[in-house]
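Quick start: read one record
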Amino acid sequence: MVNERIHRVIPTTARDGGSANAQPGLRAGPPIGRYGRPIAAHPPPPLATAHRRVSPPPGRVGPPPGRNAAPPGHATAASAATARPTIDPPRSAAGPVRATDRARGLRGSSPDRWSAAGVALAACLALAGCAVGGSGTPHPALVAATAAPATATPHPVSPTPSAAATPGCVDGPWSCPQQERFAEVTAYTRRTVGAHGYLSVVFTDRVTGATWRTGDTAHPGWTASTVKLAIAADLLRRDRAHQITLSAADRHDLATMLNFSDNAATDRLWKAYGDDAMLARFRADFGMTGLRFVPGFTPRTYWGFVKCTAADLAALMRYVLASPDRDYLVTAMRGVAPNQQWGVWGAGPAQQPGNKDGWSFESDPYGKHWVTDTVGFAGPAERYTLAIMYQVGPAGSLADGVHAVSDVAALLFGTPAPARVTVPAPDG
C-alpha cells in the first residue's frame, strides 16, 4: 500500500475486493502485502454477477398506522415476548443512526480473472449504478447526484408471515413469526461461527424503534470497506457546509468508492481530506464511539487500518438515513456493483435493500483471518437497518464469511437461506 502523504511504499495487507484501480497512475510501484506477498498495484475491479431469488419478504399480522407495507414479523397484540437475545423496547420515535466501515482483501494475479473480465463486464453494464468497465466509471446519474441528489422512491411491499408462531408465543415489540426468525438466526450463528470467530448483529425497526441484537455487538473488529460509507457521509456534509469544495474528480471518486468499493479512489480522497480529525467526527457526529485507528501498519492514520463495532455501524446507518444527504447515499447503496451484492442484499429484491460491504484478510493475536462486514437497510422507506460484522475464524474462508452474513440477512427477512449471492474476488 502506498502512503499517499509521503509517497513511498509501505507494508500492509491488500484491501477489499472492490478496490480495482478506477483511475491508474496513483502509485509508483508494486506494494508488498502485509504477509510478504507482492500485490498488484492496480488490478481491475471484480465484476461478478450476483444471482438473487425473489422470495416473500418478512411479514407482520397488521400494517402499522399510516403505512401501506408492514415491517417484518410485527403483530398487533402487545405483551411480554418469549425469551430471546437482547431486544430494546420501542422508542417513541426512531432517533438518528450511525455506523462505520473499512475493508481489505488479498490481491492476486489469477489469469482467470482477466479471461472472465469480458463476461463480467457485460453483466455489470446491465445493472444500474454499476461501474463501467475496469475504469471504475459509475453510472453518470450517480456522479451527478453528488451535486444534486436524486430522491429514491421505494415502492410499497406487502410482507406475509413466513412461519407459524411457536405455541404459547405472545407478541411483544416483535411479532411471534419475527421472534422465530430471531431464534433461527441465533441457532444459525451458533452452528456457523467457529473457534475465534466473532459474528454480531444489530437489527432495528426505525418506525417502532425496537432493536434486536445477537452476538457481542461491542466487540471491536476490522471495519474493512464499510468505513467508506462514513467517509462519504463526512465529505458530503462538509461540502454542503462550505468547509471544503469537492471537485468533479472528487465526486467521481466518491461515487466509485461507494459503487464498487474502489480503494484507489478512497486513497485519493483520504490524501486530500482524511486525517485524525475525520475519525474524531465519526465518533462525535455519527455515534461511532468504539471506532479507532490501529497503529503499527502505517506511519500515519489511514482509513484501511480501523476497527469498530457492530453497534458503531448501526449508529452510522442511523445517521445516514437522517442526514440531508440521505437521498444520494440511499441511491448509491441500492445501486452497488455485483461485488457488493451480498450481506444485507440477502434480504431479497422485494425489500429493496441497499448496503456497503467490506471484506479483507487481517491479522489478530489469534491468527490471520477473513473479515466480512455489511451495513445497510431494507424494507419500504428503508424501514429496517441491519449491521453485521463477522470476524471469520482462522479456519474459515472468504466464501464462508460472505454466505454467513448473507444468510443471516435472509433469515431475518424470511427469505430462503442459503441466500443466493456471489462471493466477490478475494483480490483487489
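The first helix runs from residue 111 to 125.
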